[in-house]
Amino acid sequence: MRPDISDRLVHFTKGVDPTAAFNQLRTILSEGRLVGGNTHIKGGYRCVCFTEAPLESLPKGFVNSHAYSRYSSFGVMFDKTWIYDHGGRPVIYQGDAEYALLPELLRYRHVRYEPAANPPIDFTWEREWRIRVDELHFSAATAVVVVPERSWYEALLAEHQAGQDAMVEMYSQVIDKKLAEQYREGFPWKVMWWE
Q1: Where in the sequence is the domain holding 161, given as residue range(s)?
Q2: Is residue 133 domain-shared with residue 46, that is, in the same domain?
Q3: What is the pTM of this model?
C-alpha cells in the first residue's frame, strides 16, 4: 500500500453552499445515478468525472495548493475496478495543441495542462478519471456515500426513517399495522465522514 495511490474513486457534488451540495447528493442517491456533463470538457463530450485522490488527503477538502476547489465535501465513492469496468479511464493531461493528436475515441480524456503558461494551467491536483456517458446508474451495493461530518449522515438516516414511517402508516390503512411494519426497509447506504 502506498499513501499516494487509491483503489477508490470519488465523484464530488457541487453547490453554492453545504446545503445545496447536500441536496444535490440527496437527489443523486434517490435517483441512483450520476448525470454526465460537459463543463470544462474540450469537444463538448458528456462525461461523469471522479478523482482518484487518496482518501487520506481529503479530510481538509478536495482543493489545490492555493485552496481552490469547485467541489463540496459531499460525494459518492466507488471501487476503481467498478469504474474501470464501466468504461472509466484516467484523463490525459497535456497541452491544448496536443488535443488534435488524440484519436477521436480518446479526446474526451483530454485535460489542458500548461505549467509554463502565464498564468499556469494545472488541474493535475484533481487526479481526474472520466466515463463518457450521459448517465451512470449505481446502487447501494456498489457505492459509498461521503459526507463531511456525522451530522449529515444522521440527516440522511432521519429522512430515510421518516419515509419509512410514512410508508408504514399508508400501508396500515389497508392492512394490519404489524404486517405493515414488515415492509419497513433498513437504510441501504454505507456512509463515511471525516470527523
Answers
A1: 150-187
A2: yes
A3: 0.89
